[in-house]
Amino acid sequence: MKSLRIGPLARVEGTVELPGSKSLSNRVLLLAALARGTTEVRNLLDSDDVRHMRAALKALGVELEATDGGRRCTVLGQGGPFAVRSAELFIGNAGTAMRPLTAALCLGHGDFKIGGDARMHERPIEDLVSALRSAGATIEYLQTPGFPPLLIRARGLSGGEIRIDGRTSSQFLSAMLMAAPLAKKTSVIELTGTLVSKPYVDMTCSIMRRFGAVIETPAPGTYLVPGNQAYVSVDTLAVEGDASSASYFLAAAAISGGTVRVRGVGTAATQGDVRFVDVLERMGAQVRRGEDWLEVTGIGPLRAVEVDGRDIPDAAMTAATTALFAKGTTRIFGVANWRVKETDRIAAMTNELRKLGASVTVHDDGLDISPPKRLSPATIDTYNDHRMAMSFSLAALGDVSIEINDPDCTAKTFPDYFTTLRRLSTPAQP
What we know:
With about 425 residues, the chain is of the alpha/beta class.
């Protein structure tokens, strides 16, 4: 297995132009494909997950052209559901492609198979399938009930009254919402359970409205979406920079006493992970904010805090490794859904934090993390999870070198991550 040695690093400082948001990139591509007209998407993320979405859309008959190294894409919309009557789609481990495509496929007519790699087939999808079935879809499980791969016998969605559980993944609600405007009648979607990652649903509603959809929220947890609508292309749309990716560089500045500014995401962003700077501020870092930029300066020792990760589930992983440098015990809670992400992130974070010498207590929905007096050098396993690789790179700021196994897993969202980190880093003196 390929590995990468990092550090020890003394300081991280400079400016980062962020790649596009993965979540926004795949939502925009899908809505542009369903819209009437042509949309030019700029600052698109060029990564494995987005390539899976582009490949799936091409297999479904959508004409699109990627240029500028995949960072720009022109999409000729279908003006409604996909016209092809049969396709077999491989999505890898891209949840932001799997869930919304499952819903969108139900809008057309034909038989479609959709699945991914081994880990995708371990990630639950029953809540979405149940909601789609209540809206008139016919879906079969091809292997294990409740999990992909799926066979969709599409005959259009009727809409109507739909209940969907929000406790496992906000992507289920987002997928249902994106399909609902093209259903035959009005959908009233009622959320059950406590919704995780609500900012991602707010982001979905925002981008749907950019493409002309009408969506109302008459009461908390209730979404009313008229049927027989049409998405309309946006001539040019720029994808926000990825707020989750920003978290690693901002945390590195807070830990090392440097100053890092990230461009492409700021106070105007729709992504929940921009709130990670609030966590760093409470830990003792200095934060400056602009409409499309964020800046963090490390000004002294960090202190432990409690982190509610429900609205920042990806950046909460960065908080977990930042806790290695904070005095006291950091509690991260509200992240029970870490267990069904690219890997079981609660188990993975626990294993790797302990390798570095941290004391970790696992609870139902998170972790308590107490740092050691001195970090131990370690070889970090990444579990084919991009965020494990990027989060644990911060440990190299602890006067140790670390070995990252399978560093190329960052291709899922940030192929150039380690190159960018190296550019901003000052090595520690021997």
